[in-house]
Structures are given as C-alpha cells and as structure tokens.
Amino acid sequence: MNALRGVWLASGAYAAVYFVLGVDRYVTYHSGSDLGLFTQCIATVFHGFHDTPEGGSHFTVHFSPILYLCAPLLLATRSPLALVAIQAVAGALAAPALFLIARRRMPDGPAFAVAGVALLYPPLAGVTFTDFHENGFATAATLWLVWAFDARRFAAGAVFLVLALGIKEDQAPILGFAAIAGLAYAVRVRDRGRALFAAGALAAAAATFVLFFGWVRPLAGAVAGWSPTHFYTWSRVVDPRGSAPWYSIGRPAYFAEALVPLAFAAVLSPAFVLALPGFAEVLGSHESITYTMGTHYAAVWIPYVLLAFALAIAGLYARSARLGRGVVRAALVLCVVVLAVASPTHWGHYLRARNAHDAVLDAALARLPPDLDVGTFDEAYAHLGFDPNAQLGLRRDPRFVLVDEKLANSWFTVRYLPRLQRGLAAGTYRLLWRDDSVSLLERIDGRGAPSAERVRDGRGSGAVGAVARARRAFARGRGHQQERG
Question: Which of 143, 436, 443, 472 is within CB 3.0–4.6 Å of 97 for a Cys-Cys bond?
Fold first, then answer.
C-alpha cells in the first residue's frame, strides 16, 4: 500500500474514532461549557458571534475568524456534534502533514511511523477529545504551513498562514517567532524564496496582532481590559483556589508529559526552540488550568514538538537507520502506554454507556421553551448552545435555573445549590417542575410575581408564554405521574 494513502486512511480512522468518542461524551452529559459557548457564538455568526459566558462578542476576547468556516456545518445540522466532528478531523489532519515533512528526509517506512506517533501522541489526543475550541485547528494548520515552507509551496503556504493566524491572537506572536527562525535559516542557506515568504509571514503576524487589539476588539464592543491577562497577574491573584506558585511541581511534570511519549527525542532537534513560546504561554500562567494536560492550551506547542521529533528522527536515521527506527518504535510504545494508563483524555471519567438519568436530562431539556433565559450547569449548557439566552451558572441572574442535584461534585452544585435552596425557602425562587433530581426554578420578586418585569403578555409569546408552556408541561408531567402511580 502506498504510504501516503496509508497515512490518510489512518487519519480517517482517527477522526472517526474521536468523533464516536465525542458523541458518547456528549450524549452521556460529559461535555463541558466550551462546547456550549462555541455552539452559541458560532450559531450567531450573522449577529456578531455573541455568547453569554463572555458577555458579548467572542471577538472581544479572541481573534478567531476561522470560526466562520465552522458555521455552515453547525447551522446545517443544528447540532453541537458538528463541532465535535470538525475537531476530530482537525486533529487527524496533523498526521499527513508530518508524514510529508518526514518523507523528505527518510524513507516511507520510518516516515509512516513518525505519522503514527502523531496519531498516538497523548497531548494531541487530549486536544482532540476535549470540548471544541478554536485551538483544535492549531496543530494541523501549523504543520501544513511548515510543510508548505519546507516544500517551497508558497501559494499553499499563504493559505495555511492565513488559517493559522485566524485561529487565535496568540498565534501571531508564536508564528512571528517561527517566521524569524525561518528567515534566519533561509538567509543562512541563501534561499531567496523562503526568505521572502518568512519575511512576509513575520509582517502578517505583526499586522494581525495590531489589527486585533487596535481595531477588531473595539469594533466588537470591547470596553474593559483584555480578559486573558488574568492568567498572568502574579501580583494580584483573584482566585487562589485555581492558582499555583512558581515552584509548583505541576510545571516540570507537564513538561515531562509532553516529552516522555516521544522518548525525549524532540529535544535533539534545533527546531525544538520553536516550541518555547508556546511552552512559555502555558507555563507562565499562575493558573494551573493552562498547564493541565488534556486541555486545549497544549495546542500552541504541540505542532512544534512533533516537528522537532520528526526532524530528530530524520537526523538519527541519517546516522544509523537502526537507531532511528529504534527510537521511533520506542516512542510508539510509550504513546500507547501513556494512553492506556495515564491518558490526558481521562477515558474512564468521560466515557460510559447511556443510562436512565441521561434520558431524564434529555426530557428536561426538551421541556424548556426555546430562547429561555435559563442558567444551568456545564453539562446542560453544552446542549443549549442554540438558545442565545442560555447561560453558564448564575452570574447574570437568569430568570430560570435548571438544576440537577445528582451532580454532587459539580462546581455548579457546590457553588449555587445552597443559594438556590435558601431562595426557595425565602420565596425568592419557586419550583416550576421536578423530574427525578432535575428541577426548573423561577426567580421571583418580593411580591411573589415573576422577577422579569418588561415581558410581553399574550398567547405563548415572550417570557410569560414561556412560563405558561413550562407550567402546562409540568401539569401534564404530574398528571402522567399520577396515572403511572
């Protein structure tokens, strides 16, 4: 079998497997808030990419025009699973690019094995399997950009450069650093074409960075400071519970998690320096979430580490074919072992067969009227992305709250359930309906009236109609329960 064809087939299988795993995670209510957030903002593609957790346009926080490419499939299917499929394909597309880079420097066999390492690399598995995020595109877009630069396919390289810069604003300085390295290399070997491309990439990266902060954010409605800076406010830690001191063992452990699956071979290549800006971004944060393997943050350094690994194997193979094959085989074994016993995907937590409680949650979400101003927990919010008023938690005082008391370890249950129970006792909330442990509550004012004053009354319209429909559904549900009893 042609090796490249084999890589494409393996990549297709990878995408199919991770899509199926993502479907299981979604239908068993293990998806998190990012899937709801991105469904919500991409679904409003014609109205400014708005979502409730960010309190406005996503473009006030991140520069992500690549999300426009996700809108057609999401709107056509009307399902968040479209984003799960897109991320599975994006993760899979890294392997063919890495194979083509490796094949320029070694035979098909070891190049195929290098691509296999990419498909088994645990950090990439973590990025592919986690909730949808624009960073999911970073590994493939970057490696295809490197392939184009390496193969002197500058027209294709320009396309991949635009895609990569459109993922998120942090790609601009990271790619700018890579462009400086590429320019230095091209000048050293007197390659005028590559030097011009690298210089153009550096200019484009700088322009994108300035454009986002100087024009896009203000146009999108940004009035406050750029929120991601909270990761680096070492002198002003807002929430100590999520922070770690500079000497935390988590940082060197994270570095080890990146390199052990590759048998530490990546550090043998000078190209490893390209991964340093990405590592600096995640390890420089005082919030441990950025250097927790299995989150999307790892995507900023993964392509450069895989590139360094491929080039290191090529160098070893040139000196000794036996040594090169041995190291890449060791990496394959280590990747499999890590995925089996210490996977950043946390298979055991996120994957299981559907059960009766999943059906209860399905029914509860189906009873909610469309466009309801409802606050809820991560796993339910992930299913409510097409409701522009759905929100995560109670930060914005939603009129309705959907609660599942069975999620005893949920941050929502720990943080908000006592407040809601006090509200029920005090009369500031009332129960609209309850099924098993799932309840819909309504916030009311001191006179016992609904708390939202400016609503349209009428036959099923506005929030009053939503309440009426919810109450009728509740009454029907009670009637059915009495019949079954």
Answer: 143
